[in-house]
Amino acid sequence: MTNSPEERRMLIGGQWVEAADGATFETVDPATEKVLATVPWARGADVDRAVRAAREAFEPGSAWRKMPPSARGRIIHKIGDLILEHRDELALLESKDNGKPVSFAGFADVPMAADTFHYMSGWATKIEGNTIPMSSASPGRFLSFTQREPLGVVAQIVPWNYPLLMAAWKLAPALAAGCTIVLKPAEQTPLTALRLGELIQEAGVPDGVVNIITGDGSTGAALVAHPDVNKVAFTGSTEVGKEIIRASADNVKKVTLELGGKSPNVVYADADLEKAIAKSAEAIFFNQGETCFAGSRLYVERSVHDEVVAGLKAAAEQITVGAGTEPTTVMGPLVSAEHFDRVMEYVESGVAEGATLCTGGRRVGDKGYFMAPTIFTDTKPHMRIVAEEIFGPVLVVLPFDSLDEIVAIEKDNPYGLAAGVFTRDIDKAFHTASAMQAGTVFVNTWNTVDAALPFGGYKQSGWGRELGHAVLENYLETKSIIAELGR
What we know:
Elements: E1 10-12, E2 15-17, E3 24-28, E4 35-40, H1 44-58, H2 63-66, H3 69-85, H4 87-98, H5 102-121, E5 142-150, E6 153-157, H6 163-177, E7 180-184, H7 191-203, E8 210-212, H8 217-225, E9 231-235, H9 238-247, E10 254-258, E11 264-267, H10 273-285, E12 297-301, H11 305-317, H12 337-352, E13 356-359, E14 374-377, H13 384-387, E15 394-400, H14 403-410, E16 415-416, E17 418-422, H15 426-435, E18 440-443, E19 458-459, E20 462-463, E21 476-484
Parallel strand pairs: 6-7, 6-9, 7-8, 9-10, 11-12, 11-17, 12-15, 14-15, 17-18
Antiparallel strand pairs: 1-2, 3-4, 5-21, 10-20, 13-14, 16-19
């Protein structure tokens, strides 16, 4: 059944279905606060039938398991083609459901989602084992080799900040590896995932290989706890990631996590300051600051601190805040009323703890969850706005005199997702990059991500890597086979 504009259904076993008990919830446009659609609220019974559908599709002899890798790769590539064919539709849907500017979704989110499927489609035919001579046996006595096998049924839970793109990051490598999937999008932003489900069917993915269920945190918890799920892949907050680890312990599920960040960005006095200011503003205000690797903690060498702050303030105050569907919008609304209140509470705490509000820190308009780009100066490492992930358009600036000062502060940073450095000195750039405990370090740039590059975090920013060849390790098992040939 095709989804209607007003009432959506979820994909289980190749069928578009309501929740077993008929429960629903509403998804809201954060720019207008109006309801976009009614969506099924999956409970335990729905989770169970989705997992059963994925298990049946993974059984030996199923169409998916018998499919040649080259055919699987062609289907995955076709999903990418279909995403590009529906680029404008998906960008508009993403903008309405999430709030982000439709122009940004059109040139960033949607094309990269397509590119992820295109890139991962090539790996379907390149999953290989090794022939390994045994070190303790005479040559020729044994034939020993490894083969790589799909892990099984995978539960994938994706966040609301890049709904379509994060679904692509999860689905594409799991399909390339030959797994079957139950995907749960965030309750705030389910619409592009459901539309993607229709495109997945159109591409020819067999029934039950990809199941998409909608619901809240309780739905995700039931999925994580399900005994027939072999692996959980989660992107979201560090707090929820820790809950998933605990919930997966009973049957020792494999878990990969892409979690939060409080990414340091270092601007040296010898940097191209015009570029550093522009990129540092982009690092925090792109996507309303609702980015896990946002450059939210800015260190500026003391001799240029005031110049950089003045430039950032001017850049922030020139940003057009408005509905994502408007072509001139640079920064849309925050995703929900709950999240808006959370970010504003951080602003209040920053003022209360003695930081200087340089610009922003206020609501924009009287409808929708719009917030002005915000910059704090005179900050200290112990302040909540400096120490904790805000996940909004709030930048904190700290002056520094030497890299050692930054390293001393950053050793207490529980996160390690990304970092950045701006300098014209190549030695200084790579010395700083080496000092940062982060999965990605940007040098004289920010927000540069590619399907071929591994992405993930150190410390409490997660386990494992997304993208690149590295992500396939998340979805494969290694089997060693040893045959005695004789003496």
